[in-house]
Amino acid sequence: MTKRALITGITGQDGSYLAEMLLAKGYEVHGLIRRASTFNTVRIDHLYQDRHEPDARMFLHYGDLADGARLVTLLAQVQPDEVYNLAAQSHVRVSFEEPEHTGNTTGMGATRLLEAVRMTGLHCRYYQASSSEMFGASPPPQNELTPFYPRSPYGAAKVYAYWLTKNYREAYGFFAVNGILFNHESPRRGETFVTRKISRAVARIRAGLDDVVYLGNIDTVRDWGYAPEYVEGMWRMLQADEPDDYVLATGNSCTVRDFMITAFEHAGLDWEKHVRFDEQYLRPTEVDALIGDASKATGRLGWKATVHADELARIMVDADIEALEHAGSSWIDAPRVDGWVAAPAAR
Ligand code: NAP
Ligand code: G4F
Q1: Are residues 58 and 107 in the same domain?
Q2: Would you give per-residue pLDDT tens digits along the chain (347 residues)?
Q3: Which of 111, 127, 303, 341 is at 20 to 30 A from 172, Cα to Cα?
Q4: Which domain holds residue 260?
């Protein structure tokens, strides 16, 4: 029997890798996409086949996590075996600018989707994209027993969604799990997250298109892993015998500064000549250190991260250099998105 999955956030970094992996495993994949005035499917275009093709197995549906009624009609239509809720306003700095929107999408969006599952009476398995950002000010190493202390509207919204997921498991017997994922990156990472901002800047500086990049706090510590490995962990959580919550992380620590040095050195550049500080990239409250302990996922799911920050920085720099070398002039001339906001004033 072909399994059917529904992915919210399929156009994002993780959604694209998850769709790729599930298609390779033989799944039929359905994705929720937002209507936009420009195409927003660039990360999954390589997977798309016209629905009239006899072997088409990926189908896209318009909808939004802010629209609960649509989630009900969509679930009733698709009848998925597995639901992966990856959609969110996922940028921490932006969540300070848009706390209400972030709460509505990242927090309430999960409630609407869980309610849609309940109202349609489906017996599907449900994955919630929870985040290490929920640990916030709790010191590392963090695992499934570490208390939450969110430091941003985004972190607070994820804590709410986490507890809703757990509550539906306990109240209604849902097979609902929280994957508490530490930072994971890739060449498909959004351009305003710090790793991609750095790798993209390195490629542009090396090509002579830019001279400097502006960053905020480079002393924070993160546990950066490689996104394709993390979507495998999401899938394993839904194949377990019992629903439970799991941390996915590498267990290694790296400062933004060290990631940046590795990225610049890999391209033969001296970072001190090209990196400047801009306070606009600071956060009103910061999460100083996230370092995860994924031993529960390793022991029970057999999941382990193999790519760590140094290798990741090199993978991302190589990919951005190659993308730049193969890009047409449209990519090179495109407005530079050099921060958490692409407003002209910020360029
Ligand atoms: P991402 O690249 O920012 O993708 C977010 C996705 O959510 C996009 O497909 C976006 O659609 C969609 N979306 C946003 N608002 C929506 C709405 N109102 N209705 C429907 N779809 C909406 O994020 P990611 O890095 O792939 O992360 C996936 C999930 O894991 C997110 O929930 C994130 O918070 C969480 N997470 C990520 C990490 C990490 O390090 N990457 C770590 C822990 C947790 P558009 O393309 O139309 O914008
Ligand atoms: O790349 P970031 O924006 O990622 P952050 O805030 O850790 O959040 C990411 O990981 C979370 C998991 O822990 C996810 F839940 C969330 O959705 C997202 O994927 O920032 C990383 C660090 C921060 O300490 C930030 O202050 O880099 C610092 N930083 C320094 N300069 C910067 C910049 N961050 C950004 N985005 N841009 C800068 O110029």
Answers
A1: yes
A2: 899 999 999 999 999 999 999 999 999 999 999 999 999 999 999 999 998 998 999 999 999 999 999 999 999 999 999 999 999 999 999 999 999 999 999 999 999 999 999 999 999 999 999 999 999 999 999 999 999 999 999 999 999 999 999 999 999 999 999 999 999 999 999 999 999 999 999 999 999 999 999 999 999 999 999 999 999 999 999 999 999 999 999 999 999 999 999 999 999 999 999 999 999 999 999 999 999 999 999 999 999 999 999 999 999 999 999 999 988 544 444 444 333 333 322 22
A3: 303
A4: 194-221+253-292+308-331
Note whether residue 301 is domain-resident. no
Are both 24 and 113 inside the same structural domain? yes
- Binding site membership of 193 for ligand 1 (Cβ less than 6 Å): no
Ligand 2 neighbours, Cβ below 6 Å, are 90, 92-93, 131-133, 182-183, 192-194, 197, 215-218, 220, 222, 256, 281, 283, 286, 290, 339-340
The tokens for 193 are: 């997250």
Asked whether residue 275 falls in the same domain as residue 140, the answer is no
Cβ of 14 below 6 Å from ligand 1:
yes
Ligand 2 center–CA 224 separation, angstroms: 11
Residue 284's CATH number? 3.90.25.10
Range list of H helices, the chain: 13-24, 68-78, 92-97, 99-102, 108-120, 153-172, 194-206, 227-239, 256-266, 295-301, 309-326, 329-333
Q: List the one residue out of 11, 8, 48, 21 whose CA is nearest residue 190.
A: 11
**Does the pTM of the predicted model rise above 0.85?**
yes
Total domains in the fold of the chain:
2
Are 52 and 169 in a shared domain? yes
> Token digits for 189?
């990472």
| Together in a domain, 172 and 282 | no
